[in-house]
Amino acid sequence: NISAQSARLRDADAALLWECPPAALTELFSSAPKLKWCHWKSAGVENLPLELFKQHGITLTNSAGVFAESL
User: What phi and psi values does residue 41 have, to the nearest 5 degrees?
Assistant: First the structure.
């Protein structure tokens, strides 16, 4: 439920995005004025609306290399 998620993010400055439809991000970002950083659950971000993150001044990180061999 996007409305419930939006209410939870109202005072958040960071969020872990997991199974969030890219189309729902507009509503989430509009309801979270303090949000500055989002982490995406996987390495692939090519299906996310990257311009939307930029417009809202939100840094996006991903999980690239999370299963890589340790040094």
Answer: -65, -20
Tokens of 53: 């993150």
8 — phi, psi (to 5°)? -70, -30
Cβ(58)–Cβ(37) below 8 Å: yes
Claim: this prediction has a pTM higher than 0.85: no
Q: What does the pLDDT look like over 21-42, one tens digit per residue? A: 877 888 889 889 999 999 999 8
Q: Which residues contact 33 (CB under 8 A, 6 or more apart)?
A: none
Closest CA to 11 of 28, 35, 45: 35
Separation CA 54–CA 60 (nearest Å)? 9
